[in-house]
Amino acid sequence: PDLREKLTSKLIGYQEVPAPKNTKRAVMQVAFPVGNWEWPINVPMLLLTIAGNFSEFPTDTRLLDLYIPKKVAEHFQGPKFGIQGMRDILGVYDRPLSLHIIKPKMGMTPEQTAAQVYETGMGGANVCKDDEMLSELSYCTFEDRLKAVMEAIDRVEQETGHKMLYMVSITDEVDKVVDKARWAVENGANGLLLAYSAGLSTLRVLAEDPAIQVPIMLHPSH
Question: Any catalytic annotation for residue 103?
Fold first, then answer.
């Protein structure tokens, strides 16, 4: 009984919502004691405790929202830049930032990619990003694409004074992502893109790496 009192989750909210005939549906709020986690908390176990079986039964349950209490959140560094930091880099404060997603998803050479970025940069786009599906291809390697696009961005700034961030995709296997990110930064990258499939734990490792001093964009759809 003492262990249950200390570590078991509690139902603290229940609100029924419209449902098909002869069924019930509800939004339920469940609280988890922070004593379930060792300190410092690691992201995989935090998510597993809260939502471990939601992906197992997607037709019956859905995780709608998650609140992290201050006692837990203070163990995470959080973003180095955030929205305000990106505005400071770009010098844009009085309007929404505009984003150019490089299209088509794949098939372009580094030079074709850079030419597209140059056009949108001249048109005023603040940020450009690889499509999340853009991977390592023989005719458009990560290294060559980064070099070509950053040269295009530099041309835009030299000609107009307009600054632009390029979020180059570093999504890869977990044992390669950090080295890939560090290489990108060392070779001129001013932003990084990580797709959700690499995992939130990978994002945390990148964000807390002192060698990675550029904004990181997470692509969290699907």
Answer: yes
